[in-house]
Amino acid sequence: MSVGIVMLVHTALDRAELVARHWARAGCPVVIHVDKVVPRATYEAFVQSLSDLPGVLFSRRHRCEWGTWGLVAASQDASELMLARFEEVRHVYLASGSCLPLRPVEELVDYLAERPRTDFIESATTADVPWTVGGLDHERFTLYFPFSWRKNRYLFDWFVEFQRAMSLHRRIPNGIVPHMGSQWWCLTRQTLSAVLEDPERPKYDGYFRRVWIPDESYFQTLARLYSTNIESRSLTLSKFDFQGKPHIFYDDHLQLLRRSDCFVARKIWPHADRLYEAFLTDTDTAMSRQEPNPGKIDRIFAKAVDRRTRGRPGLYMQSRFPNPGWENGVTAGKYSVFQGFSELFQDFEGWLGRATSAQVHGHIYGPDKAEFAGGQTVINGALSNNAKLRDSNPKAFLTNLLWNTRGERLCFQYGPRDNPGINWHMARDPNAQISVISGAWAVPLFQSNSNFAEIRAAAAILQKIENAMLDELRSPDVKARVRMWTMAEFIEAPMEPLQVIIDEIGQKSMRRLAEAPRLEDLTGFGQFLQNLKNQGMHPYLMGDFPVDPIPHNARTTRRKPYLVRK
Predict the structure, then answer these.
(1) Is the pTM of this model over 0.85?
(2) Quick one: residue 12, left, alpha or beta (phi over 0 = left, psi -120 to 50 = alpha)?
(3) Could you say which DSSP state residue 446 is in?
(4) Which of 303, 376, 520, 526 has CB 3.0 to 4.6 Å from 372, enough for a Cys bridge?
């Protein structure tokens, strides 16, 4: 018994020659189909290079564009030539020019000799395959596809939508149930000859000629009519990414391929010299005689797909950047945002750093610069405090800062004077802990010595900005941990919310605060707010502040006199 190899070649003819010689040296007849797009001179030189091998033949050439009938026609003609010229062949193995045998050919011959009636072809109904990419499952068998998916994508998509809208569809020939699977099969002589010599073949060919990607359904469907024993799997290791594109194996995949125990792998990079040298010339690298098990490396490929599509939390890669929502976590770690605290308390950053041992920055989105801790101008990752650089992409600035300071708890100040473009990004980040004292931006205005008309105008603008920011933080789509207090609520009992915030940061052991931040002097602040009201501006975000802390009409209780006896 012998195994015949059908090779579909369209590029890297030098590598295809090496592989063809490898098959031929092991006693396997080889029939090669060369894509018609290959120039005539190149094709003739390729034929001449293999002319010394009588067991290597060339079949009639077809134009093999992806997803079209040419690939099936090429497989048919090459298989017919194989069956006609090599009567000793009992199994026909379909491979490509970029396929590489991973185990000694003798092992493949012995493996198939032990299973003389078994066809190895991946074959499943459209309802059972989760890996179809492109949105066409059963429709690829019921719609018309006169336009090339690659060359006329617009017309392809338009005509598909047109047929859907007009409820147009093709009739599937009686007696067959469409199946799909890998293009790379290994069929017995009986099954393959039955498919190729079927009296109904013109009808089937006419139907599949207009099916989309027929090379993944023609033999997979018709083999079900004639095979007595199908193992729905391919003996060729081929992996595809989430877009349906084949993974390419390079030199650094050598050990990975050895662990697969598969007989053949595709798609091999033409310049992977180490792979070709190891598997085509070094017989000592032969693996043990085990059942092919590509599942051994499925975990690695699944992890690669996950890394490509989701990546590491907070790291934005080019493969995901154009797709909002593809990020695996908005940022790389947890961080705390304090709005209004540095305005209400003196040296709040220093106090928070002592209380938590966290890295506490000032207003990193301030209007003039990014206020890094310790007055630094450049921080981890060569991030500059330049406001123009930061504001060119405020989202990337925050994600880079968190990525480059992984392992540290980041804390910074924020407010209505800062860049508002980052507020919604933080609001939808589960890693963010946002604490807001609304209206605290009025304290610096109260302490300023500016003209009151200017103060009133600035207060109106800041209140409008902060109100919009608070609306975003109240959205039902917010994923951050948000706490809000009005300024009046907070200063009534500041220690309790401060304790909750410090405990949540969790940089130190859980214990009660021994030191409180020093509150700014707010004597006369209530009158300041009343003056704003008198000028026509209603400061409502601060809460209910009395004009005077102690009402003038409050009665004082006189102490009773007492006697001191001698």
Answers:
(1) no
(2) left
(3) H
(4) 376
